């Protein structure tokens, strides 16, 4: 009988310990949510709001889901983008509904890309359009926060929500603008070039437009800040420019796009002159620049670059 009681006590203690360990193994963090934010009612640029997680515990975390509620008559989510901690993950999925938005995001199946323990940073960026009038406010409240753990249990934990308030600022400052024209190296205007506006301290795209039939574009900025303007089109190298804009100011940024494979700048890609220049650069008879890295491996005028140029010259490859 004594032995039975001892075994019973040991068994009960083991079960209790197992439950305790299991409960403590669910992922968590110190907080999960947003800071206060603001925007102008007369601005066409979406306002980015980062959803941040602080001090992840019992991870790593390979996926997460949450709800954010807000006043749809004041602001509304127009897009959701990856955050700094999820830059390698799949694009977030989201669904707007009456009173808010549900967001889900999962990693790219590379274990090292899961959110590791003690990590702190943004998990997604919510782009809000401003709908209300100056002086309106909306609470941004997080709920139903789910943090998944990986193999072998795939259990779900949660974390305390950090809520914020969005305030529409008084429209006493006229938004700045960035305008410009995009041409080729030979001076031909370029139609249909994609132009994006990005904050200098963030990878979040604030606005996107395309050039018209005369090669012109126009972007609107809501606040005084530094921005990157990136122009891109198939068969041409991207061109990024840093520009500072003040409220009410119009900055003109004219951009030239260089055609891939056009090393002699005559507007034609992979002609006889371009092939010759690539070959001369490969044997150090010519000093190459970044345009000689057609295969984007960091090495200029290597064997791969020569092969790509030759194939393009024979119309066997299109340098996109």
Short description:
This protein is mostly beta strands and 320 residues long. The chain is 14% helix and 38% strand.
Account of the 3D structure:
With 320 residues, the chain is mainly beta. The chain folds into three domains: 28-169, Immunoglobulin-like (Sandwich); 176-257, Immunoglobulin-like (Sandwich), CATH 2.60.40; 260-320, Dockerin domain (Type 1 dockerin domain, Orthogonal Bundle), CATH 1.10.1330.10. It has three helices and 20 strands. The strands form four sheets. Strands 2, 4, 6, 7, 9, 10 and 12 form a seven-stranded mixed beta sheet that branches. A five-stranded mixed beta sheet has the order 5-8-3-1-11, with no helix packed on it. Strands 13, 16, 19 and 20 form a four-stranded mixed beta sheet that branches. Strand 17 (225-232) and strand 18 (239-245) form a beta hairpin. Helix 2 packs antiparallel against helix 3. The longest helix is centred in the first third of the chain and has 23 residues, at 2-24. It is flat, with a radius of gyration of 27 Å. The protein starts with a helix and ends in a 7-residue tail after the last helix.
- Indicate the CATH class of the largest domain: Mainly Beta
| Number of separate structural domains | 3
- Structural class by helix and strand composition: mainly beta
CATH topology of the largest domain: Immunoglobulin-like
Quote the average pLDDT: 88
Number of strands: 20
End-to-end separation in angstroms reads 82 Å
The portion of residues assigned to helices is 10-25%
Shape: flat
What's the tally of helices?
A: 3
């Amino acid at each position: 009988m004594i032995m039975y009681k001892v075994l019973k006590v040991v068994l009960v203690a083991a079960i209790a310990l197992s439950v305790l360990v299991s409960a403590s193994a669910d992922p968590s963090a110190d907080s999960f949510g947003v800071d206060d934010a603001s925007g102008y009612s007369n601005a066409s640029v979406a306002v980015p709001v980062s959803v941040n997680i602080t001090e992840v515990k019992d991870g790593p975390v390979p996926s997460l889901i949450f709800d954010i509620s807000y006043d749809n008559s004041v602001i509304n989510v127009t897009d959701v983008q990856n955050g700094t901690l999820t830059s390698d993950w799949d694009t977030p999925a989201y669904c707007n509904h009456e009173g808010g938005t549900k967001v889900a995001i999962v990693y790219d199946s590379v274990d090292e890309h899961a959110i590791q323990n003690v990590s702190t940073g943004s998990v997604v960026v919510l782009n809000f359009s401003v709908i209300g009038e100056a002086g309106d406010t909306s609470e941004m409240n997080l709920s139903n926060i789910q943090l998944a753990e990986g193999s072998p249990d795939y259990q779900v934990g949660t974390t305390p929500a950090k809520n914020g308030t969005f305030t529409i600022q008084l429209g006493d400052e006229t938004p700045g603008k960035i305008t410009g024209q995009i041409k080729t190296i030979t001076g031909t205007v370029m139609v249909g070039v994609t132009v994006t506006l990005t904050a200098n301290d963030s990878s979040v795209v604030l606005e996107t437009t395309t050039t018209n039939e005369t090669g012109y574009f126009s972007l609107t900025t809501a606040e005084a800040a530094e921005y990157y303007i990136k122009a891109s089109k198939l068969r041409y190298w991207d061109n990024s420019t840093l520009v500072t804009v003040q409220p009410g100011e119009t900055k003109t940024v004219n951009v030239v796009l260089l055609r891939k494979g056009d090393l002699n700048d005559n507007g034609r890609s992979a002609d006889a002159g371009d092939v010759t220049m690539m070959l001369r650069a490969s044997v150090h008879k010519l000093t190459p620049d970044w345009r000689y890295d057609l295969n984007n491996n960091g090495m200029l005028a290597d064997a791969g670059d020569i092969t790509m140029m030759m194939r393009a010259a024979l119309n066997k490859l299109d340098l996109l």
